[in-house]
Design a protein that fits this description.
The chain contains eleven helices and ten strands. By secondary structure, it is of the alpha/beta class. The chain has two domains: about 110 residues, 3-Layer(aba) Sandwich (D-Maltodextrin-Binding Protein, domain 2), CATH 3.40.190; about 100 residues, D-Maltodextrin-Binding Protein, domain 2, CATH 3.40.190. Helix 2 packs antiparallel against helix 11. The chain is elongated, with a radius of gyration of 22 Å. It starts with a helix and ends in a 6-residue tail after the last helix.
Length: about 250
Amino acid sequence: MRRLLRVFGFLLLAACNASHAAELQILSAGAMEPGLEAAVQAFRSASSQGVRIRYAAAPRLREVLAGVDVPDVLIAPPALLAELKSEGKLVGQTVPLGRVGVGMAVRPGATVPVVEDAEGLRRAVTQAQTLVFNRASTGLYVDRLLEQIGVAAAVAGKVRRYATGADVMDHLLRGSGDELGFGAITEIRMVRELRYVGPLPAELQSYTTYAAALLPDGPAAAEALLRWLSGSEARATFDAAGIEPPR
């Protein structure tokens, strides 16, 4: 009887420990947020595993990663993952998740430009009262794009830049006049109050690809989460959020 009680007690303790497993931690680039939130919620429901997600602009991911709160899974552009893996800060395979293009947005009531080609974009940025974009990968590309279409010098005085895409969207919501914002398509579509103008013309489009990798010494549940994020159910949530399949 005592032996049976000891066995029962051990099994009960194990069950309690399993039910209170530590939350998995994800650190992700912000452009993945809408699709990632839905995919992770489905994983939580299927596994009863707690997961917490933190977001940062892609250029700040390395800085955040160096902090005290180390994640189990990192979602970032493949170039950064390759650097970190070469430094021994990541383990296992890198799993491609998707790619996000650049889009344009205006506030409700503002003039919605027609941007179907380079000439349309040139006209839109010239006529806009303010151009708003971030200092991260999207904004760096917009800088190059303005140079490419020959208007960088002409519009330099009306450019407003922010640290993150979320700050750009907030500016558009609070601002006035005909302001044209640029951002990751996923971030624009998260803000229902804004008018989504559309993606950049195909010949001018730039995609940022995102992938996931594990940090060393993580729990087995992190591997299960990584498999989930590369599966068909997660793919459906990414598609719905505007995150295209990786190429």
